[in-house]
Design goal:
Layout lengths: L1 H18 L7 E7 L4 H12 L4 E6 L5 E6 L6 H10 L4 E2 L5 E2 L3 H5 L10 H16 L4
Antiparallel strand pairs: 1-3, 1-4, 2-3, 4-5
Helix pairs in contact: 2-3
Length: 137
């Protein structure tokens, strides 16, 4: 009887282990982060890269998309989002909703990075147009 019980427990343990999600060493994830300029880009990417397990971070200002390569054994999407929120940048969720950074965190960003202020956003749009028209050397 003891052998049957032992074999049953061993079988259940093996079955349970094989059903667990395999965590990837180089998982690719992405989500949108609010920001408007090069300083925002630097702040967002730095916050992501300081997260243990994040290997690569690239934020695109036009699309607002942050692309990450993470070690899922050490980090996950929620942890990286917490660190982005902590430096003052909102996470844009599908459907137009956002996870907002605290007022204290948002107020810590440089005055030109106040992406919630429509006037500042409009000022940056003009700068972006000038940059596009300037020929590369």
């Amino acid at each position: 009887m003891k052998k049957i019980l032992l074999i049953s427990c061993l079988f259940l343990a093996i079955t349970n282990y094989s059903q667990e999600k395999k965590l990837k060493k180089n998982a690719k994830i992405s989500y949108k982060v609010a920001g408007i300029c090069g300083m925002c880009k630097n702040r967002i990417e730095t916050a992501a890269l300081k997260t243990k397990g994040v290997k690569f971070a690239l934020w695109n200002g036009a699309s607002k998309e942050l692309k990450l390569i993470i070690d899922e054994r050490k980090a996950n999407k929620a942890i990286t989002q917490q660190n982005i929120l902590a430096v003052g940048h909102d996470i844009i969720i599908e459907g137009g909703k956002t996870k907002k950074a605290t007022e204290l965190a948002y107020n810590s960003v440089h005055p030109c990075c106040k992406y919630r202020d429509e006037e500042i956003v409009e000022d940056h749009k003009g700068e972006l147009q000038k940059q596009k028209k300037t020929p590369l050397k």
